[in-house]
Amino acid sequence: MKYKKELNAAIEAGKIARDIVLKIYESDFDVEIKDDNSPVTLADKMADKAMREYLGPLFPDCAFLTEESDDDLSRLTTDYVWIIDPVDGTKDFIHRDGEFTVCIALTYKGEVVVGVIVVPVLNEIYYATKGGGAYELFADGSTKKLSVNDKTSNLTATGSRHHLKPADNEYIEKHKDLISNVITYGSTLKAIKIAKGEIELFYRSGPGTKEWDIAAADIIVTEAGGIFIGPDGKKFTYNKADIHNRNGYLIVNRKENIRL
Question: Where are the beta strands (DSSP E) in 89-123?
């Protein structure tokens, strides 16, 4: 398998972060507000630092783009870049609803080649490599291949539990001929649910996410047979100077269900 070493390291980094995050999750933690008005906890900071310290020595030629570290723009001239969100769904973490994840992606020249998503509370691990498929990894080392379903009508869409916007609801209303049910989830669990074939569509309007919010989810959905695109219908590229995703994105199970 190509990128086997990188994948195994990303999984181990995810486990390290999981253990740190869960320990703090079960404690009486404080919440800070960052300059962009988003919340952050000690779990975000410690997990971010631990993953960088683990992966850095193993892959000295790889740069980092992570949510809780300073952005070193030398990454723009580096082929391989780790893109990490130590706690995706910090609001879910704060509300203790369990729907937060650890997201780790490795990009090569702007394309995601490895993606790992860990769901700490459920002790679930999902991963994908470019051209290698997407899988769930179980505690005993066994795996199960992920695959989107083939529904093209009566779709179940998902919405963001803590970031739902009027435009998101408007999209669902506009496409009621296609969508018959809506379930809300937190963090990248929405993408995982689509990759597992449990639901079919997620539309996120406008700004509010950055590269670390979507990179790992992108490859897992894509390798499971789904589609992860911007509102222009194009695939995302990563490790850009501007890391903001300003126009939203669409995740669907099949191309027949693309509505932009």
Answer: 101-108, 111-119
Identity at 22, one-letter amino acid code = L
**pTM greater than 0.90:** yes
In the structure encoding, which two tokens stand for residue 200, read together?
A: 């079919």
Q: Is 151 exposed, middle or buried (0-12, 13-18, 19+ CB in 10 A)?
A: middle
| pLDDT per residue as tens digits for the range 205-248 | 999 999 999 999 999 999 999 999 999 999 999 999 999 999 99
Domain 4-145 sits in CATH 3.30.540.10: yes
Residues of each domain in the chain carrying CATH 3.30.540.10: 4-145
Q: Sign of dihedral through CA atoms 238, 66, 52, 76?
A: positive
Task: Considering the domain delimited by 155-257, tell me its CATH architecture.
Answer: 3-Layer(aba) Sandwich (3.40)
Give CATH 3.40.190.80 domain extents, the chain. Answer: 155-257
Which residues make Cβ contacts (< 8 Å) with residue 23, sequence separation at least 6?
none
Give the pLDDT of residue 69.
97
Whole-angstrom distance, CA of residue 231 vs CA of residue 196: 23
Strands 101-108 and 124-129: unpaired
The one-letter code for the residue type at 60 is P
pLDDT at residue number 243: 98
**Phi then psi for 120, rounded to 5 degrees?**
-55, -50
